[in-house]
Amino acid sequence: MAIDKEYQKMIEQIKLDNEELTTGQIKEILKKQKSDRDELLDYVYIMFGKYAIDNLISMNSVKLNSIKKELTKILSNNASSLTRSEIAVTTELLSNVFKETYYKNAFILDSGIKIDLDFNLIRQEFIDAIVNKEFAGELFSDRIWTNKTDMMNKLQLEIIEAMKGNRTVQQVSNNIKKQYDVQAYESLRLARTEMARVEAQANEEIARSTGIKKQLFLATLDNKTSEICQFYDGQEFDIGDSNKPIPPLHPFAVAYL
Description:
single chain; mainly alpha; two-stranded antiparallel sheet; two-stranded antiparallel ribbon; Phage_head_morphogenesis_dom; Phage putative head morphogenesis protein, SPP1 gp7 family
């Protein structure tokens, strides 16, 4: 049976709304990252101002070891601050995505079917369990910790090279900015991937609550769509099919079931 186009459009709008919500929340994460980046750059500029000769730092081993300890503390605090902030923002985002997906689907179904639907009101404890569920064997919070720790380790090595006289201020500045750009991409990818995971779980719950028997896999088709998402696009699956593809099939997947 062909799916009603107007109904499909309303369902797809839920995903678009979630993507807009995610983009807004990501801006908060990136704002925090930019603030920390600028503070670290200021620290480096001050260090060059104090110890640089001909645009290269020159300091004795005692001073070098002293500043290395100070730098380790600064970067450790930055990693903890950024991680806690991103986990908090992402947790709230995913909770909202689940509720928006579940209840908007319920409203659309209820509006289009002539019988009263009996769907469950979802307790926050259940939503929290979904939000904090593993994807590909790891919690999103663990991924955030790993990403931030990896970035801070690379930044520390880069700044120590500058302290040893092996980087100009421009070189170390560019490399710090590059590391934060990589981190911004990692944060965006993580949020979008986890958004797709939570959407899929919300769709599973509303389907079971309302007695839906079939689901349709929908992918956003463009030149970035993966082969696996293109393959499944438009395919119909039984709700109880244990072999059906459940998004996200890969990081940054843009698909809906």
